[in-house]
Design a protein that fits this description.
The protein has 464 residues and is α/β, with parallel strands linked by helices. It has 3 domains: 137 residues, Methylthiotransferase, N-terminal domain (Rossmann fold), CATH 3.40.50; 245 residues, tm_1862 like domain (pyruvate-formate lyase- activating enzyme), CATH 3.80.30; 65 residues, OB fold (Dihydrolipoamide Acetyltransferase, E2P) (Beta Barrel), CATH 2.40.50. It contains 15 helices and 21 strands. The chain is globular. The N and C termini lie far apart (62 Å). It binds S-adenosyl-L-homocysteine, iron/sulfur cluster (SF4) and FE3-S4 cluster (F3S). S-adenosyl-L-homocysteine (SAH) binds next to β15.
């Protein structure tokens, strides 16, 4: 049988360079953009030089994140002009949350950008690329379309590897005083459970053993179930845990206000749900939690942590803290330090408050000066890093299951993650990839663990 030759446009390979800033959801979205463009012949490459298309997937969460975009655009301008001078073309696209929030400004400040697209428009990329080829000015798409992008994304996706992200929920209706997400990602939307389960099965068939479910408020998930009823996160976790070969489940980010009994029970009852929860608290002061519109008190947060620990005694927590939100006084900062001490975190992210245009806090009185913000942030970080180091050190001498994901820091090393998301390095090779193997922890350092394969130990004993 003879095959007809594909049309040149389909056969021609084009180089696609993707860069992602910000949260894990952006990492997932970046992968999906590559999937959308694959049928057009675009193949991801590792460097921007000479690429036929460049997509910058941006983050708007803090001012620094936005600044990075404009400096990167300046650099790419030269690269694009050089390619054009040599008779080539380079399509330059800005995607993500800065595109959504500052689309018009990008077009004015960087007129060499060809495409500006918000997080809800990725499925329209092929059509936008075609339009960009004909248009004299940038093609801008920053609506929140009525149709859901997830229904229009291709089923086929490039493998993510042993650990993978899967977005199940997007957008946020919480409107915390400081945060741009409700404006950049739009209102809350949950994907149907069936679509999530199908995607998870495809990932597992491609070699994934651990899936992190993503959502700006992942535990507000309320997707339509195959039974026509609304499924919460816990129901979804039970169904995912039944997929053979899917050994580990995580989810992020949870809002303390949306944790229910079922979610707590899922940690108790489903072995695949890892004993680790990222639960941002932002502040330990009730006055600040109210100003931030978080919808819970410090005491309520602590009670939640206690209930989760009762259900799953080995559960560890990580959190987000903001230092210097408008109106924060020394006593509020002290309350944050007290909450951190009371809970004891295994990991953390901490930030200096950054005013974001259009958010309520940006216009609030009683700004905290930079020096005070810095001092408080340093105190918060010093305490949290001490707790993280203590948590890691507490694993010394224990044997823990490690899922191996890739090469280690040094030659001859391979690395993976514990159930508590700690990176572990052992002497080993690529034959470990994708395996969950018992590892004896020899040393717990502040940022990683060093261990020894248990079966290596046994082999040595047998040889002796
Ligand atoms: N949906 C998640 C957080 C998303 S943003 C949640 O509800 O917790 C990630 C973190 O960035 C937030 O938890 C917060 O700690 C931080 N952040 C958000 N806006 C910020 C701002 N304007 N300044 C400093 N940190 C901020
Ligand atoms: Fe932002 Fe608050 Fe929504 Fe988290 S819950 S995404 S911090 S508005
Ligand atoms: Fe940044 Fe948007 Fe994520 S602002 S943190 S990329 S949702």
């Amino acid at each position: 049988m003879t095959h007809s030759t594909p049309p040149a446009a389909l056969g021609a390979k084009k180089r696609l360079f993707l860069r992602s800033w910000g949260c894990q959801m952006n990492v997932y979205d970046t992968g999906r953009m590559a999937d959308v463009l694959a049928p057009l012949g675009y193949e991801p490459v590792d460097a921007p030089e000479g690429a036929d298309m460049i997509i910058l997937n941006t983050c708007h969460i803090r001012e620094k994140a936005t600044d990075k975009l404009f400096s990167e655009l300046g650099r790419l301008r030269g690269m694009k002009e050089k390619k054009q001078a040599a008779g080539g073309e380079m399509v330059l696209a800005v995607a993500g949350c800065v595109a959504q929030a500052e689309g018009k400004e990008i077009v004015i400040r960087a007129p060499w950008v060809d495409i500006v697209l918000g997080p809800q428009s990725y499925h329209r990329l092929p059509e936008m690329v075609a339009r960009a080829g004909r248009a004299a000015r940038a093609v801008v798409e920053t609506d929140f379309p009525v149709e859901e992008k997830f229904d229009h994304l291709p089923e086929a996706s490039a493998p993510q590897g042993v650990t993978a992200f899967l977005t199940i929920q997007e957008g946020c209706d919480k409107f915390c005083s400081f945060c741009v997400v409700p404006y950049t990602r739009g209102s809350e939307y949950s994907r149907p459970a069936q679509a999530v389960l199908a995607e998870a099965r495809r990932m597992v068939a491609q070699g994934t053993r651990e899936i992190s479910l993503l959502g700006q408020n992942v535990n507000a998930y309320h997707g339509e179930g195959p039974d026509g009823r609304e499924w919460g996160l816990a129901r979804l976790l039970y169904a995912l845990a039944e997929i053979p070969g899917l050994d580990r489940l995580r989810y992020t980010t949870s809002h303390p206000r949306d944790i229910d009994e079922a979610q707590i029970a899922a940690h108790r009852d489903i072995p695949a749900v890892m004993p680790f929860l990222h639960l941002p608290v932002q502040s330990g002061s009730d006055r600040m939690l109210e100003a931030m519109n978080r919808g819970h008190t410090a005491e309520e947060y602590i009670r939640l942590v206690d209930r989760l620990r009762e259900a799953r005694p080995d559960i560890a927590f990580s959190t987000d803290i903001i230092s210097g939100h408008p109106g924060e006084k020394d006593e509020d900062h002290a309350a944050t330090m007290a909450l951190i001490r009371r809970v004891g975190f295994a990991q953390f992210f901490s930030f200096k408050y950054s005013p974001r245009p259009g958010t309520p806090a940006a216009g609030a009185p009683y700004r905290v000066d930079e020096a005070t913000k810095d001092r408080r942030l340093q105190e918060v970080q010093a305490l949290l890093i001490e707790q993280q180091a203590a948590f890691n050190a507490s694993k010394t001498g224990q044997t823990v299951p490690v899922l191996f994901t890739g090469a280690g820091r040094q030659p001859g090393q391979f690395s993976g993650r514990t159930p508590w998301l700690q990176p572990v390095h052992v002497a080993g090779d690529a034959s470990l990839l994708g395996q969950i193997v018992p590892v004896r922890i020899l040393a717990g350092q502040p940022y990683s663990l060093h261990g020894e394969l248990l079966h290596a130990l046994q082999q040595e004993k047998n040889a002796a």
